[in-house]
Amino acid sequence: KRQPKATIVIFGATGDLAKRKLFPSIYNLYKKGKLSENFAVVGLARRPWTDEILRENVEQSIKQASFSSADEDLREFTSHFYYNSFDVTDDSTYDGLNKLMIDLEDKYQTEGNRLFYLAMAPNFFGLIAKKLKEYGLKESSGWTRLIIEKPFGTNLSSAKELNNEIREAFDEDQIYRIDHYLGKEMVQNIEVIRFANGIFEHLWNNQYISNIQITASETLGVEERARYYDESGAVRDMLQNHILQMVALLLMEPPIKLTTDEIRSEKIKVLRALRKIDSEKIDKYFVRGQYDSGEMNGEALPSYREEDEQLANSTTETYVAGKLVIDNYRWAGVPIYVRTGKRMAKKTIDITIQFKDLPMNLYYKSEKERHPNLLSIKIQPDEGITLSINANKAGAGSLAEPVQLSLNNNDVPGINTPEAYEKLLYDCTIGDATNFTHWDEVALSWEFVDPILETWAEQQPNFPNYKSGSMGPKEADELLERDGNHWWDV
Ligand code: BG6
């Protein structure tokens, strides 16, 4: 087991992400011995906190995170945390940070390894990267790496601008663009399920697969994030990053080696083969939605526009469904249907592969009773795979009915899958960028979604158009019906 030594600097240490994900993840890594005793964490934000206040917050956040042991003495752990009140635009604070880091490196013997984590408003990402370089914070005796949270730009041109700014200060191999879906156990499993099983991979192409469906539905609404979300919408928030990353993993060719470069290069090829849809055809391929009021578990829910004053006239989509087309030899003719949205009937991330029917099948009385083979990769909340096959229906002569072979990770004793953030933080400390997005992936993803957003910006949507607690607008069903398909219930 490698036990990296490092000083971790968190920009945005008073924020939600630090509290909900980063502090508990660092703690878990430490507990599991995946971070050595030689570590320090510097929290930065505008608020005038002290080391003591940060440490109390870290302690609380660990106790609240259900996956960590709650009541032990955390003081030894939190004593490694330091706070600096920080104004990203004020030069003197970078000097102060550098001095603090040099002291901490001496005190904790971290060998000069520095991990900068940008977990705050994206408008300062470029500036911070530049200042880190300018003030010598990258000049340590160990490695320096930068983790950047999304959103990485709001379209291709702003993403390019941001990337150029960051690249002036950091090399591509020092930049870790985080997409937390790539840290999910079952997302990482896609590759293994495919490339370690002949029974799947031999059939993994347009000869045997009818269509692929990805659903990432959420029950939550916009929560307290109206300002961010209304500028973003479902396409930027979920499709451009998380969903396209899953698409790339599902459709890529087997890499020639399990190295970062080889895997990324196969993913990039998929994104290059993703057909860009012309503006006049966008409506044939994509459906947008915004949630109306509704009900869930007997609780009345407000519409998106009622959630916050500033949303009263919003035309931001809280739902998107699409039909993706891949123009390459393996996938020509296989539609990839994706959908994601807020305030849907359930929280689920699921991938379903529908296999083609046999040319002749005698075990059914009617078409309606005929069930295709389905492979479902369950990412959340269940983690596992289900394979739907046909078998003899008991007592019914030679008729078939579907039965399911299921593996549910949650039922396997001893498997306690680590949080996505925990894995990704660890990967970064050992220098493994495989599960982070390369710039080319980011750029190609924006190239794909930009025309959708541009076209929609010109047309007035008919919002709201789906009820809270439903599976989205009816147009999303029609999208598949036109091809003779339907969404599988997930
Ligand atoms: C984030 C989005 O990236 O992913 C959120 O900004 C969304 O809007 C979240 O809720 C979903 O993540 P998960 O892991 O809960 O599926």
TrEMBL record:
One Gene Ontology term, aspect cellular component: cytosol
Catalytic site: H242
Keywords assigned by UniProt, alphabetized: Carbohydrate metabolism, Glucose metabolism, NADP, Oxidoreductase
Family: Belongs to the glucose-6-phosphate dehydrogenase family.
Matches recorded under NCBIfam families: zwf
HAMAP family, per the entry: G6PD
Protein name: Glucose-6-phosphate 1-dehydrogenase
InterPro entries linked to this entry: G6P_DH, G6P_DH_AS, G6P_DH_C, G6P_DH_NAD-bd, NAD(P)-bd_dom_sf
Organism whose genome encodes this protein: Oceanobacillus halophilus
Summary of the function given for this chain in its UniProt record: Catalyzes the oxidation of glucose 6-phosphate to 6-phosphogluconolactone.
Pfam families, alphabetized: G6PD_C (PF02781), G6PD_N (PF00479)
Catalytic activity: D-glucose 6-phosphate + NADP(+) = 6-phospho-D-glucono-1,5-lactone + NADPH + H(+)
GO BP: any one term: pentose-phosphate shunt, oxidative branch
Lineage of the species this protein comes from: Bacteria, Bacillati, Bacillota, Bacilli, Bacillales
Domain Glucose-6-phosphate dehydrogenase NAD-binding: 9-189
Ranges for domain Glucose-6-phosphate dehydrogenase C-terminal: 192-488
Enzyme Commission code: 1.1.1.49
Residue positions binding NADP(+): G12, A13, T14, G15, D16, L17, A18, K19, R46, D87, V88, K150
Keyword Hydrolase (UniProt): no
Molecular function via GO: glucose-6-phosphate dehydrogenase activity; NADP binding
Binding site for substrate: H180, K184, E218, D237, K342, K347
Pathway(s): Carbohydrate degradation; pentose phosphate pathway; D-ribulose 5-phosphate from D-glucose 6-phosphate (oxidative stage): step 1/3
